[in-house]
Design goal:
This protein has twelve helices and eleven strands. The chain is of the alpha/beta class. The protein folds into two domains: about 170 residues, D-Maltodextrin-Binding Protein, domain 2 (3-Layer(aba) Sandwich), CATH 3.40.190.170; about 130 residues, 3-Layer(aba) Sandwich (D-Maltodextrin-Binding Protein, domain 2), CATH 3.40.190.170. The strands form two sheets. A six-stranded mixed β-sheet has the order 7-6-8-5-9-11, sandwiched between helices. Helix 4 runs antiparallel to helix 9 and helix 4 crosses helix 12. The longest helix is centred in the C-terminal third of the chain and has 35 residues.
């Protein structure tokens, strides 16, 4: 009797184990699944997450056939946005959103993409930044200095001026206006036409506008709704192309070096594919959103060719100023600018 019970128990265990193993994909065992902790300070509905990070994670999990799984800590669960570089380097996160402008003292070279009129569209800016960060000079001279590896890059459509004071069209209209920037090269751009630059993270901007700490902001139209800024800013330019903003989701060196080579290739392939998709989507959404905000009552100054030329002239000194500032710090400003021009020229063809 005891022998029969033992045999029955053994049979049940065998069947259960068989079910467990059948439920896993043939290519994957539990020991082989790589879990990547991803951190950012963005709301979950932000365009950067919805159109950038989320589809990247979904596609990579599919292409890796379950060998990679992501856990996304959104809305600053692991730390504030301006702490992300240290969180990434320390290993608190395996992968994190890095906006170099927030760390301009540590990542000044990416500021080439924040020069006035740096890129004509999100699609071109996004791909150029990915190429420079993965294959170009920024891979070694910027990201490599921190032992982190960018895999997904994004550039917002060129930044415009959103404000609560006036329906300005020309640089002189904004002289003395207190404008929020993300720091770095954006400060140079704003000061070039006589405005006052005030650093604020996007999360701080709504309250700063309500309290009158800022009169407006250089900001991407795609992200206005994410922070409810259409409630405090009633005027906008379209066509000034005051500055730009680039960012990347990067993997820390320890995590990256531990990944199998085939998984690294998947990260980069999916990353470039999604970088391109984000750029195209951001450009489409920027046009749609201007129309949406106008319908809701925002006054949008669509600039004429002559007015656009006035903006180019007003900010023309920023390029040389940026290069010279870096060279004085013994940083390769000239080489970065030359590399940037090479990629931009190839993508514009």
């Amino acid at each position: 009797m005891k022998k029969r019970i033992a045999l029955s128990g053994l049979l049940i265990m065998t069947v259960l184990l068989g079910i467990m193993f059948v439920s896993l994909p043939a290519e994957v065992s539990a020991q082989e699944v790589i879990t990547i902790k991803v951190a950012d300070g963005l709301p979950s509905g932000h365009i950067q997450v919805v159109e950038g990070l989320a589809p990247f994670m979904k596609e990579l999990e599919a292409v890796s056939k379950g060998r990679v799984k992501f856990v996304h800590y959104t809305s600053g669960q692991l730390g504030k946005q301006n702490d992300m570089l240290e969180l990434l380097k320390s290993g608190v996160a395996d992968m994190a959103y890095i906006g170099p402008s927030y760390f301009s003292g540590k990542m000044p070279l990416s500021g080439v993409f924040e020069l006035p009129h740096a890129y004509p569209s999100s699609a071109i800016g996004s791909e150029a930044y990915w190429q420079m960060s993965v294959n170009g000079i920024l891979a070694k001279e910027e990201w490599g200095k921190h032992n982190v590896y960018p895999v997904l890059a994004m550039a917002y459509a060129p930044y415009e001026i959103f404000n609560s004071k006036k329906n300005g069209r020309l640089p002189a209209d904004f002289k003395g206006m207190k404008l929020r920037t993300a720091g770095g090269t954006q400060d140079l751009a704003v000061r070039a036409f006589g405005a006052v630059s005030i650093f604020r993270t996007p999360q701080e901007l709504y309250e700063s506008a309500q309290r009158g700490v800022v009169d407006g902001a250089v900001f991407p139209v795609e992200a206005i709704a994410s922070y409810k800024l259409d409630e405090v800013f009633k005027y906008a330019t379209q066509g000034a192309n005051v500055t730009g903003f680039v960012m990347a989701y990067a993997v820390n060196g320890k995590t990256w070096n531990a990944l199998p080579d085939d998984i690294k290739k998947i990260f980069l392939k999916v990353g470039l594919d999604q970088t391109r998709k984000f750029g195209k989507t951001a450009d489409l959404k920027s046009k749609e959103l201007y129309a949406q905000y106008e319908k809701a009552g925002m006054q949008v100054a669509v600039l004429t060719p002559q007015e656009k030329t006035a903006w180019v002239q007003a900010t023309a000194s920023v390029q040389n100023q940026w290069v010279e500032n870096l060279e004085k710090r013994k940083l390769p400003g000239k080489r970065v600018f030359e590399d940037y021009k090479k990629y931009m020229d190839s993508l514009k063809k």
